[in-house]
Amino acid sequence: MSYDFDESLLLAALRPLIAPCGDLLLGILLTVVAVVGMVTTGGAIRAALGLPLVLLLPGYAVVSVLFPGRPGRDARLAPGLGTRLALAVGISVSVSVLVGFVLGAVGLPLSTLSVAGSLTVVSLLGLTGAVWRRLQLPAERRFGLPFREWAASAWRGVARQDSALDGVLNVALVLAVLVGVSTLGYALVVPAHSASFSSFAVLSANGSDDPVAGNYSTNLTQGAPQEFLLSVENHEGERTEYAVVSELQRVNTTTDTVTERAELDRRTGVAQAGETWEEAVSVTPSLSGDRLRIAFYLYTGDAPAQVDSRSADEHLYLWVTVTPG
Prior knowledge:
The protein is α+β, with helices and mostly antiparallel strands. The chain folds into three domains: 5-145, no CATH class; 147-190; 195-323, Immunoglobulin-like (Sandwich). It has helices spanning 9-40, 43-55, 57-66, 81-105, 112-135, 147-159, 164-189, and strands at residues 197-203, 219-221, 226-235, 240-252, 257-271, 276-283, 289-300, 314-323.
């Protein structure tokens, strides 16, 4: 038994909607893919999937609702495809900014979930409304993209050539354009590696309400705890696990080499992208002497058993004097 796919019930039911609203249905599909990808992925993939949701889809939905018809003799009837895309980009940027203001006004955080969810609601409502408005017009006045004509023209350009070499060259040209566009898009949405970093600070309250990076207690007593506050700002672009190891070190200041060391504390924490991990630590000096230093080593991920400045992502030093307890 065989079935003719062109005459299937599903295709027959969808054909009246696909023909006049193919661009809008594609927009709905891209919106769903974008929001799912932004919520479930991170890094470069999230940026690539989220770019259309921020820069194109909400604006295209608004333009499609306002102008359901195709350009005609009356220039005010509807803009053409080029004008629609230009308006879509401009309106999408405005909608994204407006969404940020509204979320802030109602007290919601500017997180990936809240922003992506808001833009998805705008896009889906707009695209659905555009489908309804377009179907209210006579078939000859509806705006639509000639997908079939484009595909047929592309196939004729590849298949119907005077020689096989012409067809191969056309295919190679299309592939080169796709690779170039993909490379450019990747460069635009993926930040350079040097732009990803973590900001590390060791703070001291010293009796004040606001911890500061300075005014540390540098005269310590052996066996007496001293409080510090670790602060790590995550600019890595994704959720990051951290480890901070602190050591008390005796240093040969002539050669700048560590002659004796004692681990004081080892902490781990997690910070979401753009957030700060803060945690109070209490260090208890086990060595005594002048010109000792407390070293703080920051690692993204797990810290090794033996820590030093070469293996750490960031490190800070605090020179102290420890008197015998």
